[in-house]
Amino acid sequence: MTNGQGYVYGVSADKQNSGACYTLNDDQIFIYDNQTELGSITVDKMVKYLNTHNSAGIVKRLANDVVLGTADNNSNGSSTTKIAGDRGLDNAPAEMLGTWYSYDNHEKATVTFTEHTIEETEDGRTVTTELHKMNPDRDRGDHDLDKAYWAKTKHWATISKFKVPESKPKDNKLYYNIYGWNETAGDGEFYALHTEESQPVLILAGGAGIWTDAVYWKTPELAQKYAGKKFHDLRYREMD
What we know:
Blueprint: E1 5-10, E2 20-25, E3 28-33, E4 36-42, H1 43-52, H2 56-63, E5 86-89, E6 98-102, E7 109-113, E8 117-122, E9 125-134, H3 147-153, E10 156-163, E11 174-180, E12 189-196, E13 199-206, E14 211-217, H4 220-225
Parallel strand pairs: 9-10
Antiparallel strand pairs: 1-2, 2-3, 3-4, 5-9, 6-7, 7-8, 8-9, 10-11, 11-12, 12-13, 13-14
């Protein structure tokens, strides 16, 4: 199943008769039968359909029967761990998946988004960050002195959508904020898709002003061609 992320929701708990199912990706529902995609619909349209067909009672009854699990015991999937505060793997934005290239800081750098990780390489050093959903009740400072907890989660981060507040200089890009699992201060990193020179680019920004730190391109050739160039529609630290 190529569309949708996380759980596969089956009509039947019987594995021998679970051909009809669906997956979710943000606000989109993808419907399958025997692993063949039949079509898709937005959650809003599905809700309107159910409401106009007086199906609220059926939905509530079925919701009580839903059981979440993994396909097998060895599957990483989006299953949770026993680590406090963890609600399972989170998904990187589908439109950012793949490897992006930059030469902005006089050094070749790459960032690679996979379904659940972000791999950053610079100066020959690679750091892989695993994206996890955090329980909203978890206090990030709970485990500051727990070395075992820190060791298990030091390469974890949360991901959330972020729009620059109106109180800051106008910036209409949709950013994704990557924030360290155990961070208690700072702003984390911000990634956003954009277009420069008629090419798709990935913006890396940071700081309280969401200043542009680097521009990543889809090929090394484009990254080298525009290495170090400052674009008039992006905000840089030295311009403020």
